[in-house]
Amino acid sequence: MWTLLQIELFKISKRPRTYIAFAAVAAIVFIFQFAFKADGQSYMDLMLQSVKDTFTFDRVQAINGYFMCYIILNTLLIQVPILIALIAADSISGEANMGTLRLLISKPISRTQLILVKFAAATIFTIFLLLWMAVTALFMSLLIFGTGDMLVFRSKGDESQILLITKDDIMWRYLAAFAYATVALTVIAALSLLLSIFAENSIGPIIATVCIVIVCTIISNINVPIIDKNVKPFLFTSYLVGWKGFFYIGTDADGKTIRGSLENWPAIRKSLLILIAHIFILVTAAVVVFKKKDILS
Amino acid sequence: MSLIIEVNHLSKKFGDILAVNDLSFTVNQGDIYGFLGQNGAGKSTTIRMLLTLIHPTAGNIKLFGKDLSANRSAILQQVGAVIEKPDLYKYLSAYDNLSIFAKMSGIKVTRQLLMQQLQMVGLEDRAKDTVRTFSQGMKQRLGIAVALVHNPALIILDEPTNGLDPQGIADIRNLILRLSKEMGKTVLISSHLLSEIELIATRMIILHKGKKMVEGNVATLLDPAHTLIEIETLDNTTAKHLLAQSQWAAFVQPGNQLQLMMDKIKVPQLINFLVSGGVQLLSVNSSHSLENYFLSLTTQSGNVDAFAN
After folding, report:
1. Residue B54 and residue A10: Cβ atoms within 8 Å?
2. CATH says B3-216 is which class?
3. pLDDT at A180
4. pLDDT tens across A105-141, in order?
5. Which chain B residue is nearest to residue A16, measuring alpha carbons?
6. What residue spans of chain B are helical by DSSP H?
7. Nearest residue on chain A to B49, judged by CA atoms?
8. N or C: which end of chain A has fewer CB within 10 A?
């Protein structure tokens, strides 16, 4: 199994398309950092406009590395599924397209092993992509913008909320957020893997994955009670941005933030479990479908 | 002599299409077994079932005396295959491709072993080049190196000479003969090049529309006792009618042409019979090449395009 995984990672590392995702992440992060370095003040003025009379904060100091990373992740983690699909959706369909699938299947490895190895490789790719995001969006931002307490802008129902997290209470939240994002994006990898079994080139599964994510995201954002109750709880897209929960710090009766606390840990834990259940169901489905499939490519 | 392949009542349906129909055959150790049939005869489907790429609808397969479905991994360690085109990872080098598939076959991979394999197929100088830069013939040779790298006891080659020039075809032929005679390997080979099969195969099977038409030793099947006789007369319809009512009826092949599969020594008797029946003969030709034999069994008129080469 380990040898198979090494082979899979070797193949991924040798494909030029693998590095498109890393280049795209670096480019987006750099553009954000450049824009905020050049004119972050305007952004802060806009964000703090409604609270300028009640909330005093050094706006220059507010644009620090932690804040930058939060802003970047807010944007980037919505787009990253496409980058994950680029690799994961190619897992089986790419082999079928190249004609190597029949050679793989004729080797003394089981189909279950092959799917699990492909899934593990896609997961490792996801982890590396998020580590790369951590390096570029967090650590590079800290180098460029420095550290400091972090502002979190939050929409809660009709209200806007600004939370302040002290700088010694932030890093663990990022570690937890990246770990959560890894699980969330692994669902995308599992979905892409499943779809890739049905196709003989990777374009179809990539487009199908992106379409499913878009449709489910739209449904997740429809605020109609019947959908809220009966549909949203079962959609993985309802939990993709659950990483933000690590930055929703708990507050005391006076509204003061409590260091090291989370506003709603049970909700985060439930989201994680639902995402893991999605992964389990999708990978199991991939194994079952692939085991029954006739390889005609 | 032990059986390497035992196929019993194998069938495969794709929707309503019966691609392989109640097929049974055996391959002995050391055989070079020719697998013949027109396009769509069920050759590739059968080969894919032997390699577990396709699940049979009915029947069972035993390789090395063991049930394939129950002992898949252990059996496939002893099998090497080139399935249709030898598609490999185009973005990887020949060496890396060989290394990957050798590791997947569960053997200990050394640089020396891989270079030996590349040398065997004449690609040692191109070891570091990506497969993207290879000609079809080079890919084919690399595919064969991949099939042989783990020293399998059974080698399955589906159209291994596709895309090769005459020298390449001769090289593959010699390699197959060497694998069989010097190394005792069992080879199952399908090819459109019937003359090539005729040169190397010891036993063969002919499939037609998913069914077995004939199986046996090539030497026996191409024996003069089973010679194809083609007769040209002024009136083939009358001649055929006459033959249908005679002892020769069993030898007449289906189709519009007047063809009989028979012992060559009985040709004078046949001529006498036809002449005494008033048939005016224009020519009588005999042939026992594999191609003629194959065509006599499998083709209806106008259905021979696939074997034009």
Report:
1. no
2. alpha beta
3. 94
4. 989 999 999 999 999 999 999 999 999 988 998 999 9
5. B91
6. 43-50, 72-76, 94-104, 111-120, 136-148, 166-181, 194-200, 218-221, 236-244, 267-276, 290-298
7. A294
8. N
Q: Which of A100, A109, A295 sits opposite B87 (nearest CB)?
A: A100
Q: Which residues pair with B6 in a beta bridge?
A: B26, B62
* B142 inside 8 A of chain A by CB: no
In angstroms, the CA A82 to CA A240 distance is 13
Contacts of A295 in chain B (CB under 8 A): 48, 53-54
What residue numbers bound the domain in which A57 lies? Answer: 2-292
CB pair distance less than 8 Å for B73 and A108: yes
Tell whether domain B224-288 is in CATH 3.30.70: yes
Q: Convert the pLDDT of each residue in A260-288 to its tens digit.
A: 888 889 999 999 999 999 999 999 999 99
- Using CB atoms, which residue from A7, A11, A99 is nearest to B87? A99
Q: Is B128 on the interface with A (CB under 8 A)?
A: no
**Min CA distance, A7 vs chain B (Å)?**
6
| % of chain A residues with pLDDT over 70 | 94
Q: What's the token pair of residue A26?
A: 């670096």
Between A11, A102, A110, which is nearest B53 by CB?
A: A102
Tell me: the pLDDT tens digits for A232-251? 888 998 898 888 899 888 88
**Residue B70 touches chain A, beta carbons under 8 Å:** no
**CA of A290 vs chain B CAs: smallest distance (Å):** 11
Helix (H, G, I), strand (E, B) or coil at B168: helix
Give phi and psi for B24, each to the nearest 5. -135, 135
Closest CA to A123 of A62, A189, A174, A173: A189
Nearest CB among A14, A16, A106 relative to B76 is that of: A106
The CA distance from B52 to the nearest CA of chain A, in Å, is 7
* B111 in reach of chain A (CB within 8 A): no
Rounded distance between C-alpha atoms, residue B80 and residue B69, angstroms: 17
Any domain includes A297: no
Number of domains in chain A: 1
- List pLDDT tens digits, range A16-63: 888 888 998 899 899 988 988 888 777 777 776 666 666 666 665 678
The backbone torsions φ and ψ at residue B36, rounded to the nearest 5 degrees and listed phi first, read: -115, 155
Report the gap between the CA of A210 and the closest CA in chain B (Å): 26
Q: Out of B77, B88, B100, whose CB is closest to A108?
A: B77
CA distance linking residue A130 with residue A22, whole number of Å: 10
Question: What is the predicted ipTM?
Answer: 0.81
Whether chain A has a CB inside 8 Å of the CB on B257: the answer is no
Distance separating alpha carbons of residues A149 and B37, to the nearest angstrom: 76
